[in-house]
Amino acid sequence: MKFAPVSESQITRAIVDEFAAELHAYVESDVIIVGGGPAGLMASRELAAAGAKVLLIERNNYFGGGFWLGGFLMNKVTVRAPAERVFDELGIPYREYSAGLYVADGPHACSKLIAAACEAGAKLMNMVALEDVVLHEERVRGIVVNWSAVYSLPRQVAAVDPVSLESKLVIDATGHDASVVKKLEERGLLQTKGQGAMWVERSENLVVEETSELYPGLIVTGMAVSTAYGLPRMGPTFGAMLLSGKRAAEIAIEQLGL
Ligand code: 48F
What we know:
By secondary structure, this protein is of the alpha/beta class. It is built from 8 helices and 13 strands. It is 37% helix and 27% strand. Strand 7 and strand 8 form a beta hairpin. The structure holds ligand 48F.
């Protein structure tokens, strides 16, 4: 076996050209999803499968958010019925632990969900963090981003201006932080209620029911819904994240007329 003769400079060109072309193409999208946890990945997959041009940005190097681990550093993830149907759909192996409660391996479930978003055609950019929103005439019309690394550097080293990415819709899938929603709250355009105490039974239904367009152009999904509406937290179970991601995609698909 012998590798093809390719120079160092050619490898660099391949990275630069391909990345620049992709960034150029995604300066405008149908939907930008901020946050690559289970809710954001699920929404990306559904929207891309429906034919939308989707960009998912994530501030970490890895996608998956809290979906790699089930809780307390133990990597078994749980869902309650009827969310095991999503596991069936994505080909994630699982077993029924007790009536209506299902368990899967975190790494297997998470990697399958990431692959499903990519295979559906969503573009995923890691190490990119939300800095602000683009807001014209009382409607969110995109986001302002910078490289995540910029925020770890001292101000005197990294006075780096961010850039803007435009979209017809933005989805806040940033989990407990509700980072996009908070940008509107900072300006007095809405008020979040903060998360309530644990009550899994109530929380999961409510997160899916309250997944909605919170402000013109901004849809909220996953645990960001809980922070925005003051819903109880649900702890280490993920069915509502997957179903809320699907619901957010349905709302966006309807608005985009797909
Ligand atoms: O936290 P995360 O997994 O949110 P989720 O999809 O699911 C929540 C569950 O994991 C769990 C739970 C219920 O089961 O309580 O916590 O709602 O994923 C959110 C992702 O958003 C990224 C963050 O790194 C994580 O991967 N994120 C947060 N803020 C920003 C961001 C930001 N400002 N810019 C880019 N990404």
